Amino acid sequence: MLKLVGTEHYADGGVSEVIRPAAVVPEDSARTILAALQAHSVDKGGVWVASARQWSRYDATGVDSNGHPMGQLIGCIEAVYGATTRYEVTLYRVTVSAAGTEAGWTVETLCDEPLAYGGLTLATCPRAKLQPPPKPFRRTTFNDFV
């Protein structure tokens, strides 16, 4: 079940949401998605910039003389590699920029584009198992600490 929490709406129209439970991209899909993001990077005629912690989607291809994307940022997907198992990718926060919101992008559509390379959507992506919070620490007597 998809539950988005911690939604922030910015004055410029941008939206940032925390995905809970986090989406966990299985190893086979993750490898396919990461290869596709590299193949579709802005410097290769695509619209993505993928790093070890973030996947950024732009509205146009190409980079300037300094290597920066020439298009406007549509949004970013925050990722952690190897958090659950060594080769899985965990997606935990998604931000859609003001330009992305104006163009009709949502958290779901931004995530669904790269996840489709691995045969997934945000709605069908496996979820992290949430652990119950730890029991509170309780002191029984003062002598327990002496």
What does this structure look like?
- With 146 residues, the chain is α+β, with helices and mostly antiparallel strands.
- The chain has three helices and six strands.
- The chain has helices at residues 27-39, 98-102, 107-116, and strands spanning 3-9, 15-25, 48-50, 54-58, 73-81, 89-96.
- A hairpin with a 7-residue loop joins strand 5 (73-81) and strand 6.
- The longest helix has 13 residues, at 27-39.
- The relative contact order is 0.21.
- The model has no long low-confidence stretch (mean pLDDT 87).
Features of this protein?
alpha+beta; 3 helices; 146 residues
**Poorly predicted parts:** none
Largest sheet: 6 strands, antiparallel
Number of helices: 3
**Number of strand segments:** 6
How are the secondary structure elements laid out?
Elements: E1 3-9, E2 15-25, H1 27-39, E3 48-50, E4 54-58, E5 73-81, E6 89-96, H2 98-102, H3 107-116
Antiparallel strand pairs: 1-2, 2-6, 3-4, 4-5, 5-6
